[in-house]
What does this fold into?
Amino acid sequence: MKSLGSIRRDFAPWNDPNAKPYIQFDKVTKKFGDFTAVNNLSLTIFEREFFALLGASGCGKSTLLRMLAGFEEPTAGRILLDGQDLRGIPPYKRPVNMMFQSYALFPHMTVEKNIAFGLKQERMPGSDIEKRVAEMLKLVKLEQFAKRKPHQLSGGQRQRVALARSVAKRPKVLLLDEPLGALDKKLREETQFELMDLQQELGLTFVVVTHDQEEAMTMADRIAIMDKGEVMQVATPAEIYEAPTSRFVAHFVGNVNMFEGKVAEHTANATRITGATGAEIVVDNGGKAAAGSDIVFAIRPEKIKVSSKKPADAVNALEGEVYDVAYLGDMTVYHIKLDDGQIVRASALNASRVTEDPLTWNDRAWVSFRPDAGVVLTR
Amino acid sequence: MNSTWSRFNITSIVLGFAFLYLPIVLLIVFSFNESKLVTVWGGFSTKWYVSLFHNQGLMDATWVTARVGVISATVATVLGTLAAITLTRYTRFRGRVLFSGMVFAPLVMPEVITGLSLLLLFVAVGLDRGFFTVTLAHITFTMCFVAVVVQSRLVSFDRSLEEAAMDLGAPPVKTFFQITLPVILPAIISGWMLAFTLSLDDLVIASFSSGPGATTLPMKIYSQVRLGVTPEINAACTILIAVVAVGVIIASIANKRREIQRQLDEQAAQRG
It folds into this structure.
């Protein structure tokens, strides 16, 4: 079977019509004065899912998280957790915990006391608290730092304390607000995998807010792309990347080439597109666009092949001139200026050390791609 | 930067410090004077310190001042902290600008006016002037100083600490006492010390609002000086200076130590 991004997933409750939703945003709107932070948004998250809210700053993703935690009440709409309407329930009575972007560690308490704070509020017996704190310290590998105060820890250690504190109460849902935002790049990459392992180990539902697409792609089962208080698309990382449903999503995640055009004709299993490129483009997945309608054909740079001669078997081939070449080591990025003036970005993996068909500035070149290499976007 | 000791630098430092401390040094030196005349040196003696402790009037005044200071500083700290919290947290209520202006106006209000208006009020409501009215007056004028000190700390307070506490199950009141209060406690203590010091050396407002039987130390000293300065007063002032100086030195050493410890800790944390 052909599958997007060639990842086989066993865990996919969103494809199961009988799966019970765990968190439901039902037509939720949040206004701050005249500003609408979240606009009539509906979203379903499933149990044990690692869900990412991805968007630029000010898109409403943090507001959504804060409404789930109880720090903000929706202006309209409902939020359900495990079937229970959360309206009017204060943050200290909700079965969710949050890890803050600033970590918000209590500066006057030791690591141990920080982790125990939530358990004490539950009036858990002292011996159980001790046991749980020890367990949490072991989980985040901070056993020897139990008696330290937050300012005696490095950034990465503080992040782990914050994590331990927020999972200590075994919440139904863990909310993470830019959990890796304050870490440097190398530490961030390591921590991404640690977070994924932790989620598997604890079997919790994670909702993470981030503006870093790589982070979201790495960690999440599904991603919701947000813009101006609305959800643009909710899908797996592979679907988001390979089958975006709008120009915004295609642009937001990764690099993309866009060709404006018109649907000329639908044949049995293909769609012909004519447009600004002069030449015709044939695709096999344009069925949803009506004949004659204006569309955009979007294709990722790595799906485009660059060659000095027109490939004999190519369905789609456009001619132009090499405008720019960037050699990045693992791959080379070409900017090809087509004869109609549009610049196409194509990247080629440098799978071998020597190439038979080297291209350089101002060479004539052909770009070609398969009928299933891109997507037809109607909005 | 030029760090050599030029003649100009030395001269200006000597003159500057002389300007600041010569009067105080003179006061301290003459408190150990054998002679009864304040300005003539008659040999070293500590007899004025001994006689000071037998001067019932001065001892009573000291006791009154201490009680007024502690009570007024404590009440002013509670009220000032509440005002500071209201002003930093509830930024959208009606009349906030007016309220904050009114809280801070006493900072610049001439003491004579504060004192006089308090006196008029006490007379108008028929309050007998005495210990109670001085304390009330001191609460009034020190509260705004506490509010300023606590507010400056609250502005830089990370609200997500409180949100984290609530998120972990602590209701708002518990959050305040377990998280907010401990974090801003140093500022509250500074506020209390400031209020106490202000109350300790206030003469003007106390003169207006006090009555028989509630003479504070500054009032007592002032009234005795009008009858002629005795070395006994010098001795009393020297003790007062010593108390304040010791307090300041302890506070700054503790502060410095904490700062150094914090830096060491942070360096250790960075090393891992």
